[in-house]
Amino acid sequence: MAELPPFEHTPLDDIASIASRIRTSFLSHKTRPLEFRLVQLRKLYWGLKDNQDLILEACKKDLGKPSFETYLTEVGWCMNDIVFMSKNLARFAKDEPAQDMNLTNKFFGPKIRKDPLGSALIIGAYNFPIQLSLGPLIGAISAGCTAVLKPSESSPHAAAVMQKIIAESLDPSCYTCIQGAIPETTALLDQKWDMIFYTGSVNVGTIIAKKAAETLTPVTLELGGRNPAIITKHADPKLAARRLLWAKTLNAGQVCVSQNFTLIDKEMVQPFLREMKNALQEFYPQGARKSPDYGRIVNLRQFQRLKKMLDESSGKIVLGGTMDESDLFIEPTVVEVKSMDDSLIKEESFGPLLPILPVADLDEAIRIANEVHDTPLGLYPFGNKAEMEKVLSQTRSGGASLNDGFFHASIPTLPFGGVGSSGQGAYRGKASFDVFTHRRSVTNTPAWIESMLDIRYPPYTLKKQQKFASMSELKPDFDREGRPIGWGRWMLGLLGVKGLAAVVGK
After folding, report:
1. pLDDT at 472 over 90
2. Alpha helix (H) ranges present in 257-315?
3. Tens digit of pLDDT for each residue in 325-340?
4. Which neighbouring-strand residues pair with 113?
5. What value does the mean pLDDT of the chain take?
6. Where are the extended beta strands (E) located within 170-315?
7. For residue range 54-79, what is the model confidence (pLDDT) as tens digits?
8. What is the rounded CA–CA span in Å between residue 482 and residue 485?
9. What is the predicted pLDDT for the residue at 107?
C-alpha cells in the first residue's frame, strides 16, 4: 500500500491569492460547458477508485472506522453520486419552460436557465470526512462552479488524501484544497465567495452565517440537532432495538443524523432493553472493544466531552458504560434518564450514548419532542401506521425515517438537509446540482409583438386597461367564502344570472 500523504497547513499568506485564482477561473467561463464538468466528475471518480486503499487506511487512522463502513459511507457513496450525476447532468442543466399562466406570455418564450452560482467555499466535517467534503464538491462541479475545499483538520489523514486526489484529478485552476484549522478557515471566510457550503456544528454554523451575511453571500448549512426517536406501545421492540442500536454504533455514534434521545412508552421499556441487550451481543459477540467493526472517538477533546456528559447525568446506566481514554473507546451505553434536563439530552451527544426517557403515551412523546427548541435534523418514530401518520402530522424535522434509524439519509436521490436550527438548504441527487445553481428567469420579446405591447405605454386609458384585463386576467375557481366552484357555478358567475337565463330561455 502507498504511504499516506502528510497533512500540512496551507500558508496563510497564500489563501487570498488562491481564492482570487478560483474566482478568476470562474469568470473565464471555463467551467460552464457541460463536457468540462463531465470530464472533471469522471476524473474524480477514478481518483477515488485508484486511491480507495488510502482512503480506507486514512479513515481507520482518523476514526478507527472499519473498512466495510468506510466503503459503505465514504468511497462507494461518493462514487455512486458521481455516476448518478454524470448520467443525469444534461437533464438537470437543461432549460425549463415556465409554468405559464396564460397564452399571451408564451410568445415571450419564458424559461428558467440553470446558471452556476460562481466560486464556492466548501467546509467539510470530520465524522464522514470524504462524504461530507467531496459530496458537496460533486454538486459544485456539476453546477459549473469553481470551488475551494477546506476539509476538517480533525480527520487529518483523510484530509491529506483528499488533497492528493483533487490535485491529481481535477483542473487546479478551478478546484483546490486548503488545509488548516481556525486561522485558515477565518482567512478563507474573509475572502469573497458566491456561495458557502458548511457541514458541522450549530455554533460554528452560526458564526459562518453571520460572516456570510456581511456580504450577502448565500449559505447552505448542514448542521446537527437533538434528534428524537419515539417508541410507541405498538412498536416491535426487537426491530426498534436493532435499528436504533445500528444508528448509534455506526461511526461510534458520530453521526449528525442519528437519534440523540429516545422517548419510549413506559410499557415498552423492559421489552426494549431486553432486545437491546440481545442486539449488542449479536452485533459484537466479543464485545464492542474487541470488535473490528466498531470505531473510536475522533480525538481526546471529543472523548472528554462525551465522558463529561455521562458523568454529569442523573440517569441510570442500564447497558454499557465502559470507557478507555487511551484508546478513545466508549462502549455503546444505554442510560434511562428522568427528564429532558439531563446532561445527555440537553445537547447533541454525537457519540454512542443512548439515553431513553419513559413517557405515558404517544401524545406526551410528541409534546416533549415539540418542546425541544432545536428543530431536529431527523425524527425516528416506531409504531403502527396510524401512529406514524400522527407523528409526521404533528412534528417538524429535516427528514424522517419511520420504523428505522436515519434510512432516509441513505437514499441518494432524496434531498438531505435540515430546517431551522438543524440547517438550511439540501443536497444529494438533483438537490446537489440545485444547491449550487441559480435558477435564472429569462424571456425574449420579439419585435413583431410591439402592437400588443402598446397597452403598457403612456398615456394610460380605460380602453388600454380593459384590453390588458382581457389579455391577462384569470377567472377564480372559488367564491367569496373561499369555497371551490364547479364548472357549472363558474359558468354562472361568468355569464351572470341574466345571461344564463337568456341561454336557458333559447
Report:
1. no
2. 269-283, 300-311
3. 999 999 999 999 999 9
4. 440
5. 94
6. 175-177, 195-199, 219-222, 228-231, 261-265
7. 999 999 999 999 999 999 999 999 99
8. 9
9. 87
What residues contact 336, with CB distance under 8 A and at least 6 apart?
269, 315, 316, 318, 355, 356, 357, 358
**CATH class of the domain at 35-94+110-223+430-440:** alpha beta
* Location of each CATH 3.40.605.10 domain in the chain: 35-94+110-223+430-440
For residue 476 the three cell numbers come to 377564480
- The reported pLDDT for the residue numbered 493 is 55
Residues of the chain with CATH 3.40.309.10: 228-412
| Contact in structure between 242 and 279 (CB atoms under 8 Å) | yes
DSSP 20: H
Compute CA 325 distance to the chain's CA centroid, rounded to the nearest angstrom. Answer: 32
Which residues fall within 8 angstroms of residue 233, CB to CB, at 6 or more apart? 265, 267, 268, 361, 362, 383
Question: Among 57, 74, 222, 387, which one carries the catalytic annotation?
Answer: 222
Residue 57 a catalytic site member = no
- Note the pLDDT tens digit of each residue in 76-130: 999 999 999 999 999 999 999 988 667 778 888 999 999 999 999 999 999 999 9
| H or E element in which residue 247 lies | helix 237-249
In the residue annotation, 347 being an active-site residue is answered as no
Q: Exactly one of 57, 184, 256, 275 is catalytic; which is it?
A: 256
Question: What separation in angstroms does the CA of 3 have from each of 177, 324, 374?
Answer: 20, 29, 43
SS3 content of the chain, % helix, strand, coil (to 5): 50, 15, 35
Quick: pLDDT tens for 334-376: 999 999 999 999 999 999 999 999 999 999 999 999 988 789 9
Determine the Cα angle at 398 with ends 393 and 401, to 5°.
70
CATH topology of domain 228-412: Aldehyde Dehydrogenase; Chain A, domain 2 (3.40.309)
Q: Any idea which residue has 413517557 for its cell?
A: 359
